[in-house]
Structures are given as structure tokens and as C-alpha cells.
Amino acid sequence: MRRIALVVFAAALALVATSSPSAAGGCINNGRPTEGTSADVRIDKCQFMSAILRVPVGTTVTWTNDDFLPHEISGIGWGRIQSMLMTGDTFSHAFTETGIYPYTCPLHAGMSAVVFVGDVSAPASRQNTVASRVEGAPVGPVDPSQDGPWAAMAIVAIAAAGVAGFAIGQRARER
User: Fold this and answer.
1) What pLDDT, in 10s, does the model give residues 64-96?
2) Most buried among 12, 38, 69, 167, by the most CB within 10 A?
3) Can you tell me the distance from the alpha carbon of 82 to that of 65, in angstroms, rounded to the nearest whole number?
4) Which residues contact 113 (CB under 8 A, 6 or more apart)?
């Protein structure tokens, strides 16, 4: 009976993992970066809102996770990775010096943003650099095939039915 429960659990886990990127822990950020001046940054739909933040020196910025996935804030060159932010959790950091402070969520590739503190601006980009070509880059991944999750569910359902049938057969033999 334990084996059956373990196999059914493994099949259900495989189904969830193959059904969608978000369910498997992935993040698909389909939005353009937003710009703002509020010291409150929302994390939702795998993006920081506002992703480009402009605040005066001495501002304490607070990030709130409104997403169903856990996230982390890793300040590149200015902070450390704090504990994982679950839904509703917050993280705050006081910016006491003028500068440009990039940050990212190390759990989800491509989820990054920047805080401009004080009277600073982004350095001018040169032609033929990666930064100069970002505007023309695609925003999100190409839509996956609609058949993918259904095919995975069918495979898992067939495997689960086979395991259940095998277990029923074994039980019938024991009687």
C-alpha cells in the first residue's frame, strides 16, 4: 500500500511539474518594465513594479511579495540575499548614498530591476552594445504549444492507471 501511495504521489508531482512553467517554479515575465517614484515596490506576476525606481537619498524602499511564488531580493553590490519572501512578506532597505543600485531575484532568471538614488542617471549606451539592442528584444518567451500540458497529463494518467491496475492485480492474487 505504501508503494502505491508513493507512486501515485510521484505521478501527481510529475503532472504538476510538466503542466506549466509557473507550477514548476518557473517565472515568465511578459511585461515591460515600469518606472516609478514610490518607495513601495510590489512583486507580482514575476516582475518588480516599479522596475525602474527613482528615489531621493535617505529613502527606505520596501518590497512586498504579492505573487503566489516565493521571491528573494539580491542587491548587486549593495545588499545580501535575505530570506525567501513568501506571499505577503516584505523586505526593506535604506538607501543612504547617491548611486545606481541594481537588484534581482536569484530564484527566477530575468527578474531584475534597478533603484536610482539621488540625482543620477543611467550611463549613455553606445551603439552596437547589448544595452543598445535591448529595446528591440522580445519581451517574453514564445507561447508554448497548447498540446504540451495535455500530452503530459495523458502520459501521467496512463502510468497511474497502470500502477493502480498492477496493485489491484497483486491484491487479488493475495486473496
Assistant:
1) 999 999 998 988 777 666 678 999 999 999 999
2) 69
3) 13
4) 33, 41, 48, 50, 51, 52, 53, 102, 103, 104
